[in-house]
Amino acid sequence: MGKAWGYRAFGGADVQEFFERPDPVPGPAEVLIRVAAAGVNPLDHKLRSGHAAALNGHLPFPQVLGMEAAGTVLAVGDDVTGLAVGDRVTGFALTGAGTYAETTLLLGESTARIPDALPETWAATIPVAGTTAVDVLDQLDLPAGATLLVNGIGGGVGIAVAQLARDRGLVVTGTAGPAKRDLVTATGATFVDYTGADVVDRLRALAPDGFAAVADTVGGDSLRAVAALAAPGTIVSVGDPSVTDLGGEVVRRRLDRANLAAVADLMATGRLDPHVTRTYPLADADEALALVEAGHTAGKVVLDLSR
Ligand SMILES: NC(=O)c1ccc[n+]([C@@H]2O[C@H](COP(=O)([O-])OP(=O)(O)OC[C@H]3O[C@@H](n4cnc5c(N)ncnc54)[C@H](OP(=O)(O)O)[C@@H]3O)[C@@H](O)[C@H]2O)c1
Most buried of 35, 61, 111, 112 (most Cβ within 10 A)? Predict the structure, then answer.
């Protein structure tokens, strides 16, 4: 048996609760892990609220929150290759077992071993924010020296895009709230406060000919405003499918083991810091998700089950 934090119906934070569940039994394609750390993501509250029911509307209640975790393998499904009991891993819980829990199931092909030196609190951020940042940059495929605007640079995806873009030789500018100035400038990016007036005019003053591309993590009106700063075919959004109305593209995701392992290597070699700015014990999962749901987190929020 293990403790899990989830919800018995779709709704607001008031539908969340702890419950005990038997350790899930891995199917042929899955691994059972003891969770050491779980990433907290905007998708978690979108799933709880029912706003992403295409993804979880078919699953029985109670549903456990969380899509990504790092931990230690306890059991391996018959069809899973390359992973063994005792391995330290990170991966996606793509079959609905959730990750805000003491034990859970990860999909074997979307799970990778992690280097010994990599803390699980960092590794837990690889599946969602880490690989999304790689996918955005792979999709844009910009040459070294090109200019990139990251709209929403201070959150989990944005701060990873900033560092990996710099690593690829791009010249990065990013929008964020005023509290994130130091976080953003530490990545080498030019910081632009989106809360003041005329943010588009201030961006255009920095790049009179526009940017080579825009990587958007915010969506909505903010995306529509900055879209004028790059050619339509050079805009990729991670969260807003209406980007296609602007001639841009939604990020195409790669959830495979090789992508996870590549990001783990970027972290272990010091090229990517996920900026885990807050950790919470599982007992305070409600506070962790409320912080992310408020929409202004810096870097990543992670549940640390060793706390
Ligand atoms: N397609 C995928 O596979 C995928 C993967 C990961 C994430 N996503 C989606 O991508 C979005 C971002 O994810 P995330 O994990 O990076 O979220 P996050 O960690 O919560 O960060 C969001 C950031 O946006 C900033 N922000 C809010 N309004 C802004 C504005 N108008 N201009 C600039 N910055 C603004 C927030 O802080 P401040 O306002 O204080 O600056 C915050 O730092 C979410 O919608 C998520 O669901 C999709």
Answer: 111
